[in-house]
């Protein structure tokens, strides 16, 4: 196909604003999927994506579209729709998908208006010099306020409200006009067809039958089956076993030229060998310059993952090995814990990545898992100048610490203006510094804060939602590190530290953490034959203590006090009659007590 007849675009939107539904309508209208085989959210292939209604791995599809020109002649075009993952955890993947496009449909729910991810994605699109087509979706909804939100949208991108398209992904209204607009407004790809081949990898998925399927956008030259290619970041060469387009299933072709989007298969077995962001070129007389810098995925959040049933450990290992084939960002290494036994310390791109991974392990591999409190990456410098990278409280160095650096994020919060006070108060308690505030309209406001990532991963989103009745939206990106006054708090049972409860916290929160953990454990741990002190300590300094009195003969050995109803679901999952006791020094603790203490709020 001539580049002049190609348009590469993506749809960017806040979650739930209707991106997948709109993509479905486009598949149908262009005849790529007939109504019979149509199912909701065709492009969201993973079960978990369909259930949660979010797109985790991007999918792209080739759509034929004919437009009648001014002379009344029909002209055929090829549109490549690139479906980007919508969540902050996957910013780098989103940015690579955007880099494969010339334009973006900016989709906004006509009953909701602009939200935090709308803005975050818009900024990424503008950084990539994409042409933006502003669209209000769900105009079929009785609650839609198209005038109001068209003004908001026009204000943000600097166009006239009349240029904002009105569509409904549900009824299909306005979708044809939108496809025409894609052809009319988005520039066609430009590249040198005689230059050595260069293509960018913007997604890579593992398929059990075919190995890794890599999605590419060709910039220069042409790639053909059976040619040898070089992956420029890994400097490995591979043979192109298959080259094709997605329509919407993979269809082999004789090659991909300038501006085309499609897939390649090279026989590699692991997505790490075919990395998002890498440039491929011909292995002989190839290009020397890459298409933008390749960036390794960097885990931002770490947490321990343990099977509830210790005998499931080998199963967990196999499951992680399998997931990794399809997830270049997931890292893990074995870890053992007094309280929880053998497990893995896993690194994730963010909280959602953590949740998805855990969900998949439980769902696809039938594992029952417990995860420890998430931790960020700390850089600890000692008095003697030595440095430690700490992703696990148990690796916190002993000795004199000179300073600690922690990751800082820039967050954008969008909310109805009546909640400004509540949001500011919340951000203050989370060590936030306000960067600015703008009104999107009279009633909606955008607040910008910088904040330690550690404060965000500790239930910030839930707290924000509950203070704003669910109306606020949040997006954040890492912007560097800052020095923080951080300490490690240990929890000790009869003088023995319980590793799973150690936490790195800001000095001002240390006491509160110590008190809440000692109180919790006091309620959860059954009485023993002897008195058991429970202490919270920073180094050798005890900051909180409780004591479990010794058991008396007439006292029934009742295990639990307190409210563990929230834990019930997890506890129910455990097989009956298999009460696992863990020894911490001389103290016998049911594993359930540890799990309950880790899981409640
Ligand atoms: P995504 O998260 O942006 O991919 O959003 P989805 O396409 O999954 O849609 C989120 C929800 O909005 C689903 O319940 C859809 O059925 C609904 N929805 C999407 N588009 C429309 C629309 O045009 N009109 C109405 N009434 N509902 C829609
Ligand atoms: Mg979706």
Structure explained in plain terms:
The structure is a single chain. This protein is an alpha+beta fold and 601 residues long. It contains 14 helices and 31 strands. The strands form 6 sheets. An 8-stranded antiparallel sheet has the order 10-9-14-7-8-13-11-12. Helix 12 packs antiparallel against helix 14 (591-599). 46% of the residues are buried. The site of magnesium ion has 5 residues, from helix 1. It is a peripheral membrane protein. It is found in: Cell membrane. Keywords: Cell membrane, Elongation factor, GTP-binding, Hydrolase, Membrane, Nucleotide-binding, Protein biosynthesis. Belongs to the TRAFAC class translation factor GTPase superfamily. Classic translation factor GTPase family. LepA subfamily. GTP binds at residues 16-21, 137-140.
Could you outline the blueprint of secondary structure elements for this entry?
Blueprint: E1 6-13, H1 19-29, H2 47-52, E2 60-68, E3 74-83, H3 91-99, E4 103-109, H4 116-127, E5 131-137, H5 146-157, E6 165-166, H6 175-185, E7 198-207, E8 211-220, E9 228-231, E10 236-239, E11 242-246, E12 250-252, E13 261-265, E14 279-282, E15 301-307, H7 313-324, E16 331-337, E17 341-348, H8 351-365, E18 369-371, E19 378-382, E20 387-390, E21 401-416, H9 420-429, E22 433-439, E23 444-452, H10 453-457, H11 460-467, E24 473-484, E25 486-493, E26 496-497, E27 503-506, H12 507-524, E28 532-538, E29 541-548, H13 568-573, E30 581-584, E31 587-590, H14 591-599
Parallel strand pairs: 1-3, 1-4, 4-5, 5-6
Antiparallel strand pairs: 2-3, 7-8, 7-14, 8-13, 9-10, 9-14, 11-12, 11-13, 15-17, 15-18, 16-17, 19-20, 19-21, 21-23, 21-24, 22-23, 25-26, 25-27, 25-28, 28-29, 30-31
The site of guanosine-5'-diphosphate has 18 residues, from helix 1.
EC number: 3.6.5.n1
InterPro entries: EF-4, EFG_III/V, EFG_V-like, EFTu-like_2, G_TR_CS, LepA_C_sf, LepA_CTD, LepA_IV
Protein name: Elongation factor 4
């Amino acid at each position: 196909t001539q580049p002049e007849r190609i348009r590469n675009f993506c749809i960017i939107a806040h979650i739930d604003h209707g991106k997948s539904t709109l993509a479905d309508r486009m598949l149908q209208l262009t005849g790529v999927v007939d109504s019979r085989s149509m199912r909701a959210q065709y492009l969201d292939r993973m079960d978990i994506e369909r259930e949660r209604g979010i797109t985790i791995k991007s999918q792209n599809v080739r759509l034929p579209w004919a437009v009648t020109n001014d002379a009344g002649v029909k002209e055929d075009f090829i549109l490549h729709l690139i479906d980007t993952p919508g969540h902050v955890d996957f910013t780098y993947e989103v940015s690579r998908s955007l880099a494969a496009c010339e334009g973006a449909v900016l989709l906004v729910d006509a009953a909701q208006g602009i939200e935090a991810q709308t803005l975050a994605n818009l900024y990424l699109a503008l950084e990539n010099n994409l042409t933006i087509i502003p669209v209000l979706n769900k105009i079929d909804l009785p609650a839609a306020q198209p005038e109001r939100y068209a003004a908001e949208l026009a204000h943000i991108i600097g166009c006239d409200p009349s240029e904002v398209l009105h569509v409904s992904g549900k009824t299909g209204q306005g979708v044809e006009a939108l496809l025409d607009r894609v052809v009319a407004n988005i520039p066609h790809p430009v590249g040198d067809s005689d230059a050595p081949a260069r293509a960018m990898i913007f997604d890579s998925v593992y398929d059990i039958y075919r190995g890794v399927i890599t999605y590419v956008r060709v910039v220069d030259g042409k790639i053909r089956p059976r040619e040898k290619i070089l992956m420029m970041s890994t400097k490995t060469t591979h043979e192109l076993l298959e080259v094709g387009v997605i329509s919407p299933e993979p269809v082999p072709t004789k090659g991909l030229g300038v501006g085309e989007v499609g897939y390649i298969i090279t026989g590699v077995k692991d997505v790490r060998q075919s990395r998002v962001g890498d440039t491929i070129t011909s292995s002989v007389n190839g290009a020397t310059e890459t298409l933008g810098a390749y960036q390794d995925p960097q885990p931002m959040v770490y947490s321990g993952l343990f099977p509830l049933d210790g005998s499931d450990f080998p199963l967990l290992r196999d499951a992680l090995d399998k997931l990794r084939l399809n997830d270049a960002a997931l890292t893990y290494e074995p870890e053992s814990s007094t309280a929880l036994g053998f497990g893995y310390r896993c690194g994730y791109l963010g909280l959602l990545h953590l949740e998805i991974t855990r969900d998949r392990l439980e769902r696809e591999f039938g594992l029952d898992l417990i995860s420890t409190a998430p931790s960020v990456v700390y850089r600890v410098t000692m008095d003697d100048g030595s440095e430690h990278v700490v992703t696990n409280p148990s690796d916190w160095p002993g000795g004199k610490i000179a300073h600690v650096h922690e990751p800082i994020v820039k967050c954008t919060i969008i909310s109805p203006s009546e909640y400004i006070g509540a949001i500011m108060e919340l951000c203050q308690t989370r060590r936030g510094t306000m960067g600015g505030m703008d009104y999107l309209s009279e009633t909606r406001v955008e607040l910008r804060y910088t904040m330690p990532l550690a404060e965000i991963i500790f239930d910030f989103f839930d707290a924000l939602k509950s203070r704003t009745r669910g109306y606020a939206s949040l997006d954040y990106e890492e912007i560097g590190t800052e020095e923080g006054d951080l300490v490690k708090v240990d929890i000790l049972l009869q003088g023995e530290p319980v590793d799973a409860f150690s936490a790195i916290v800001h000095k001002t929160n240390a006491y509160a953490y110590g008190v809440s953990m000692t109180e919790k454990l006091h309620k959860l741990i059954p009485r023993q034959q002897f008195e058991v002190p429970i202490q919270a300590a920073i180094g050798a300094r005890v900051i909180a203590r409780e004591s479990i009195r010794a058991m008396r003969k007439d006292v029934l050995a009742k295990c639990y006090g307190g409210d563990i109803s929230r834990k019930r679901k997890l506890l129910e999952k455990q097989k009956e009659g298999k009460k696992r006791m863990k020894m911490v020094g001389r103290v016998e603790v049911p594993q359930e007590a540890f799990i309950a203490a880790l899981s409640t709020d």
